Records
---
Amino acid sequence: MSGIISIDREKTALVLIDLQKGIVERETKPYTSKTVVANAVKLVNKFRENKMPIFFVHVDFRNAVPLMMESDSTFNRGNPPADWVDFVPELGVTSSDLVVTKRQWGAFYGTDLEQQLRRRNINTIVLGGISTAYGVESTARFAYEFGFSQIFAEDAMADMSEEAHRISVEHVFKRMGRVRATEDILSSI
């Protein structure tokens, strides 16, 4: 999981999943939400410094019709506070950043993320966020099938369980792209 890699600044974008108040407040593993956000901020700063595109993705279920599939377990959405979808302030989202609002786990289905990446001639994404096995993995699976190369910032993502994070990283992400620590990605840009 370590090593410097070649990153084409002209064709690479940062995509951060669900680093929003209502999700970051949860307990995460193997990294705390605070660690995930701190590493995401390092990536954001490096991408901004190099004028590389940044996509902030958040989920908003408030006005969405829920999926009606039968399942053994589901997420308890309850009645989230008004700022639940707001990005954490540490990220410093600006008007020049691209914001994607999703209603599902992944960032591609039902959004214009693919179109926005292709219009910018992006063929590689650096991916991070919460949670590894849901929002990040669902986005990664679509990205893989759409033909995007992927770099996974392993310590800029976390899940509700360490096992779920580890399974996604070891058994899914390593087959779809390159898994690296934030510091290795920063050194590669």
Note: The mean pLDDT is 92.
---
Amino acid sequence: MEYPDLTALPADARKIAEERSALNVYRMVFHSPALAPALVRLGDAISRGTLPHPLRELAVLRVGHVYGAPYEIHHHERIGRSLGLDEAGVAAARTGSTQGLSAEQAAVLSSTDRLLERHGLTEADRARALSFLTVEQLSDLVLTVGFYQMVCTFLNAFEVTTEGEDAPG
């Protein structure tokens, strides 16, 4: 599918789109000019959330792998590594195996899988996560998983690729 003509967007949406147009996901999402600015702001808020960045990226990568979203995986492997996600975490996101992970990484990976499979957490899942996360961080994890489910569905539906991107990676 063709990318939208960013110059035809309303002024407020066009400004946001032009700031992000190096990445194809942002270019494509502006087929929905009324929703795209809020989606961009939510993604920015998630990146500034309280969940430690390597743990956030572990969850994002797991969603990308479960959803079979190569675009997401491509970008977030690079982002994750740059934010301190180790190679064991990158590999675990691919397989879902918690072997070789820290207790915190294993809990985040398991919680992510529970959210993806069961659309919720059990009392035991919450207790395990809350043994090292605050309630705010756990809330950020749940919202992160949900957000990236939406993003990966979008990427897959429109077959967004990295072709022609200006961004490194």
Note: The chain has a mean pLDDT of 94.
---
Amino acid sequence: MQPGVGLEQGMSPDALADGTPQKNLEFKARLGDLATARRHALALGATEGAVLAQVDTYFRAVSGRLKLREINGTVAELIAYDRPEGDAHRWSRYRRVAVGDPAGMKAALSDAMGLRGIVAKTRHLYLWNDCRIHLDEVEQLGTFLEFEVISQGDEAFDRDRMASLMSAFELGEADGILASYSDLRGL
């Protein structure tokens, strides 16, 4: 196992990205002020995680999306996911697989599937009750906030945790962005 795999997802260092199907509820919004968002996260009781330099390379996929995520230039994982982009709160089903040779994986997938493009960002990670709060500075796009509520198998409970996050950050449904960073970049 590679050290740090899974850390950007809010898991312990020994949590391996093993391809197990997972599900979360997501919300994304533009952020006007990073400092205010940090204060909201800390006031909520979130713990500050790592600052992560992430490079997501997107490939053409037959269904859903496929990206190779390189984290701090030291670890990488392949993430296959599918989610509707039409709602502010979106259920995402995904699989994460640790990658030992990111350059080789990128070359093989580019050759076989075709490259869609690259999204680079600096992610400030906060953790709260099995939820991830991302404060993202995305190259060529600006600053964003993203919530990921890891599903506990009870959608009502998951939605309650999302509602708590929305309230703490003073956000409403209308603040949501209905697209991924790759879509916003036109990839």
Note: The chain has one domain: 7-182.
